[in-house]
TrEMBL record:
InterPro entries (UniProt xref): Bact_HTH_transcr_reg, Chorismate_lyase_/UTRA_dom_sf, Tscrpt_reg_HTH_GntR, UTRA, WH-like_DNA-bd_sf, WH_DNA-bd_sf
Every HTH gntR-type domain range: 5-73
UniProt-listed PANTHER family: GNTR-FAMILY TRANSCRIPTIONAL REGULATOR (PTHR44846:SF17), MANNOSYL-D-GLYCERATE TRANSPORT/METABOLISM SYSTEM REPRESSOR MNGR-RELATED (PTHR44846)
Native source species: Actinacidiphila glaucinigra
PROSITE patterns attached to this UniProt entry: HTH_GNTR (PS50949)
GO molecular function, one term: DNA binding
GO BP terms: negative regulation of DNA-templated transcription
Origin superkingdom: Bacteria
Name of the protein this chain belongs to: Transcriptional regulator, GntR family
SUPFAM superfamilies in UniProt: Chorismate lyase-like, Winged helix' DNA-binding domain
Xref: SMART domains: HTH_GNTR, UTRA
């Protein structure tokens, strides 16, 4: 009895099953095109299309001059974003990974686009400080983030630039406390979505592969938004954990 659906999809599904069951190990090559053709009695075009499906799903990746290899899709570690996490731009404590985590950043002053202005409670076009972060574990990108702060809060102070000055690399709470702004809460919104082309290239995954996106906004004691950020991580390599403390 013939398998339902296109032949290339059946081949892709069978190869995914073999990878999920550990029959094809992470970082090992998948069978060559000629062996796949023979095993599935398929044409070059059908086999190539099946492999493209695997690449798009993040199961395999091509290595120039070497072939197509199974991707290690096991969760690398947990990103603990609870209230006890280290106060740094990373806003995360890495659990279960011994890799040294660091970050690179670039900062510019710009006018707030409508969506960011709404999140910060300011007018569209008001000046903001935007910082892009690339977080690295053993020098490999694991998390991307973009942060926006209203320039009206930090302009002319020692904390106007998140990565320069005496309070550099202190995180939102630590930096703003230095100018008398007390951050009392943060709100986060999580979503799963396909990676953009730029995100996929930076994180080393396939274009369209699922990522976890976190929108985080910090508020001061007057419930004023003092910073908002977008964070993106690979959904297949990192788990996100929250510690929720209940107080009477």
């Amino acid at each position: 009895m013939a398998e339902p659906g296109p032949v290339y999809q059946w081949i892709a599904d069978d190869l995914m099953r073999r990878i999920d069951e550990g029959l094809l190990k992470p970082e090992s090559p998948i069978p060559s095109r000629s062996r796949l053709k023979e095993a599935y009695r398929a044409s070059d075009q059908t086999v190539d299309r099946a492999v493209r499906v695997l690449k798009a799903a993040g199961y395999v990746e091509g290595q120039f001059g070497r072939g197509v290899f199974v991707v290690d899709r096991s969760a690398r570690a947990t990103l603990d974003r609870g209230t006890g996490s280290v106060d740094s731009p990373f806003a995360t404590r890495v659990v279960g990974d011994t890799a040294e985590v660091d970050w690179e950043a670039s900062t510019v002053t710009m006018t707030a686009p409508p969506a960011i202005a709404e999140r910060l409670g300011i007018a569209t076009g008001d000046p903001v400080v935007m910082t892009r972060y690339e977080y690295l574990a053993n020098r490999r990108p694991v998390q991307l983030a973009t942060s926006w702060e209203p320039l009206a809060i930090t302009d002319g102070t020692d904390v106007a630039h998140p990565e320069r000055g005496p309070y550099a690399r202190r995180g939102v709470r630590g930096r703003l406390a230095a100018i008398g702004v007390r951050v009392v809460r943060a709100r986060e919104i999580l979503e799963s979505r396909p990676a953009t082309g730029w995100e996929a290239q930076a994180l080393g995954c396939a274009h369209g592969q699922c990522v976890t996106a976190v929108q985080r906004t910090h508020f001061d004691a007057d419930d004023r938004a003092v910073e908002t950020s977008d964070t993106v991580i690979r959904a297949d390599r990192w788990r996100v954990a929250y510690s929720i403390d209940f107080s009477s």
